[in-house]
Amino acid sequence: MEIAVNISSIVIQARQEYIEELVEKLKECDFCDYHFHDKDKGKIIVTVDGEGVDDEIRNLKIVQSLEHVIAADMMMSYS
């Protein structure tokens, strides 16, 4: 049986002075994959995956709860 996997991108907004710290946390975590950041704009791009929307929402909430995160929102989803 094939398991369906959803993949979604998340754009994270943070103050410039915390971007490097957040990038290091995200690179080491097990709930998302780090892809890119723009320190000048205070943005970080990560992806999350899961067997369903519930898994992705759980991971989004973890990202949103990280210290120094102003906002984190799903932008694109692929299933």
Q: Can you tag this structure with a few keywords?
A:
29% helix, 42% strand, alpha+beta, 2 helices, 4-stranded antiparallel sheet, 79 residues
Give the gist of this structure.
The chain is of the alpha+beta class and 79 residues long.
Structural notes for this entry:
The protein has 79 residues and is α+β, with helices and mostly antiparallel strands. Helices cover 29% and strands 42% of the residues. It contains 2 helices and 4 strands; from the N terminus they run E-H-E-E-H-E. Strands 2-3-1-4 form a 4-stranded antiparallel sheet. The chain is elongated. It starts with 5 loop residues before the first strand and ends with a strand.
Give the neighbour order of strands across the main sheet: 2-3-1-4
Average residue pLDDT: 92
Number of helices: 2
Helix/sheet category = alpha+beta
Question: What is the H-and-E element order?
Answer: EHEEHE
Question: Sheet bearing the most strands, described?
Answer: 4 strands, antiparallel
Q: How many DSSP-defined strands?
A: 4
Stretches where pLDDT is under 50 for at least 5 consecutive residues are none
Strand residue percentage: 35-45%
Q: How far is it from the N-terminal to the C-terminal residue, by CA?
A: 16 Å
Q: What percentage of residues falls in helices of 4 or more residues?
A: 25-40%
- Rg value: 13 Å
Summarize the SSE layout with pairings:
Elements (H helix, E strand, L loop, with lengths): L5 E9 L4 H10 L4 E6 L4 E8 L2 H13 L3 E10 L1
